[in-house]
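HUMAN: Mind sharing a backbone?

ASSISTANT:
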Amino acid sequence: KDRPFFAYYPDHAVHAPYNPKPDLLKKYQQKMQSSGDRRDNAECAATVEAVDQNVGRILQKLKELKIDQNTMIIFTSDNGGLSVHEGENTPATDNTPLRMGKGYFYEGGLRVPMIVRWPGVVPAGSECATPIMNADFLPTLCAAAGVPKDNLPKPLDGVSFEDVLRDPKAAHDRGDLLWHYPHFWGVKGPGIEPFSALRVGQYKLLFFYGDRRYELYNLADDLGETTDLIKTESGVAAKMAKQMRTALERAGVQLLPPVAWEQMLDLVANARVVVTDSGGLQEEASYFGVPVVVL
């Protein structure tokens, strides 16, 4: 408490498989029976409250140590709620009006809540609609701690958003948002294939590697991504496709050749299990010489 510190706390409670506290599970099972609420997953609800309790314990400890007024706290998620089947007691969430959820590049998978508490800096109760991404945390935290920009690693994908923390109405130029997912997830379950996505302003372009297909959405008019504009706004799509390709090449990402889902099923049958650097197990396969991680 007497020196600057950084603490990263990823709570596993809301991640499948769920292991809810018995008393909380009973609470939400009873609530489901009496309320008729459309949110019908007591296991998930119980773990959400458990996370809330754990966050409260952290805040209380900071207060006891008398450092709560000099500590920035960021509460967020790395993906949207799980909306597909992934084991027992799933799907767990309904992200309506957003489309889909975890593992997808639709807004249900990308758009997550973020709460920042920074006494004396972030105006209490303020809201900000400026898009950012998790890669922006590193430069933001370093800026808040007074780390010179020259000391940061280069190249850096993230952009500091300290300006909008201090003033939610600040003109923050974050630039385009790029996502790339060169993996298959849940070949025997959700069936999510490799894809990339680029957001420029209110437009978002998605590219699916399996059948080399694009989709285009205007998030300002269609947050639920129900209307594909790939044909009606082909000029916008063509321009963004070039921007996406340039950005992916600049980042040096792993690109995949066309692959049909049926071919991927064959690869899974011959996948080998390897031990990762962290000691976990991971299935690996190869497609035309390109390593493919089977999630």
